[in-house]
Amino acid sequence: MKTYILSLGAGLIVGIVYSLLGVRSPAPPVIALVGLAGILLGEQLIPIGKRFASLPELTRFVATDCARRVLGCLPDNRRRDA
Fold first, then answer.
1. Are 25 and 15 in contact (CB under 8 A)?
2. Domain-by-domain residue ranges, the chain?
3. Mean model confidence pLDDT for the chain
4. Which of 11, 44, 57, 82 lies 20 to 30 Å from 29, alpha-carbon distance?
5. DSSP state of 80
């Protein structure tokens, strides 16, 4: 979670600098981000199809490889509230 907060903070700082310089952000429009999500999900269709014959293998692949590739490395929840 710390990495996400640092990333957000860095983005805010860059946004402030862009605002002070009077330039627009080179960030892609939302439609481009939706297309990128489609690419990430579409990449997984062929490997899923190959593993479809073996259901336990498919379940493992989706839970590990696909999730990691599409969502990135998610933070651990090692410290739980009591």
1. yes
2. 29-71
3. 78
4. 44
5. -
